[in-house]
Amino acid sequence: MTMTTSSLASSSPYEQLKNDLGYLQLGRATECFATVADRAKDENWSHVEYLAAVMAEQVAATTNRRLAARLRYARFPYVRTIAEFDYDFQPSIDKKLVEDLATLRFIEENRPIVFLGQPGCGKTHLAVALATRAVEAGYRGYFSTADAMVRVLVQARREGNFASKLRTFTAPSVLVVDDVGLLPIDTEGAGVFFHVVNARYENGHPTLVTTNRGLPAWGDVFGDPVVAGAILDRLMHKAVVFNIKGPSWRMREHSALAEASKA
Question: Residues near 76 by Cβ (< 8 Å), separated by ≥ 6?
Fold first, then answer.
């Protein structure tokens, strides 16, 4: 939007300021301009108080828009929060440790987090909840299953764009790699998996891993004990490990449904 000298001269300061906000693409400030002006008049605000209120609305809108963009980029499979986790159902989980991790200090300290346990015990819930907390705090996050990540990178290597695809998994501050060991990984896949873990270790970006296989069995998972050992060497350095020994949430819901059907 371009305003001529004559139009500026004919516009009131109110109209000119509103037009300028629109020209600067401050959408929320433009939308609330009139309503905030009415409130400022009723409550006898100073010009500075009025401007601060308008800009606070714009800042809030910009913050929410950027958060929404980071959440879309992260590709979390669902919305989960730490407050939703049922510690009574999984008493093997140290609640105080989870709350400490929720401060996000583990990001600055580059502490990987490994969740061990059978399917349905809440591993992915906690990993996604912690990663979501990080995204809400302004960090970049990303989620992928181990199988999907390996397939993408193996294909990228064959097509000659491995370096650019690798950054998808190494650049975010927090990466969740879900279901390691659920599906077997061949030698080529083990190699690209190592590249991700090693790059993140060297860059100081923690990785959150969920797995239903015990760590000694990772040699079988990756088909190469040497590569598996190299992955664990980097992943377990300073790592926080949860060994969840409780039952499956899904089986609990199935049992509850079965009981309800009988009733």
Answer: 128, 131, 132, 141, 143, 176
